[in-house]
């Protein structure tokens, strides 16, 4: 099976990129593929559990569900810090990472899809 990497750079409630990442990752996991997701720039906001969101589109919970299914999810620590997000604001299985973790992900995956503006 393939190892799919995704980079989410856009905010969760400005574009539908976060929703696409969640649906694509869920489908890939269901088909037996490995999935790694790196939250970068405003993409880190999707993992913030302190945002008051509608239940049907709570991206933090949707990302946690992906992690529960085996997706590796990391958020850029500098991007998070600059947006006032601490690692306590993330779901349990979402790691505060660095650009080094991003580079490691790029080395491990078979394909990368970048979700930007």
Q: In angstroms, what is the radius of gyration?
A: 13 Å
Largest sheet: 5 strands, parallel
CATH arch. level architecture: 3-Layer(aba) Sandwich
Individual helix count: 4
User: Which fold name fills CATH's third level, the topology?
Assistant: Hypothetical Protein Ychn, Chain: A
Number of domains: 1
| Series of secondary-structure elements, N-terminal to C-terminal | EHEHEHEHE
Instruction: Return the structural class.
Output: alpha/beta
Regions with little confidence, pLDDT below 50 for 5+ residues: none
- CATH H-level superfamily title: DsrEFH-like
Distance between the termini: 29 Å
Helix content: 25-40%
The strand line-up of the biggest sheet is: 4-3-2-1-5
Tell me, what is the CATH class?
Answer: Alpha Beta
In percent, how much strand structure appears in the residues?
15-25%
Overall pLDDT level: 93
Number of strands: 5
Shape: globular
3D architecture notes:
This protein is α/β, with parallel strands linked by helices and 117 residues long. The protein has a single domain (3-96), classed as DsrEFH-like (Hypothetical Protein Ychn, Chain: A), CATH 3.40.1260. Helices cover 34% and strands 22% of the residues. The chain has helices at residues 17-30, 59-68, 77-82, 99-108, and strands at 3-8, 34-39, 72-76, 94-97, 111-115. Helix 1 (17-30) packs parallel to helix 2. It starts with a strand and ends with a strand. The model has no long low-confidence stretch (mean pLDDT 93).
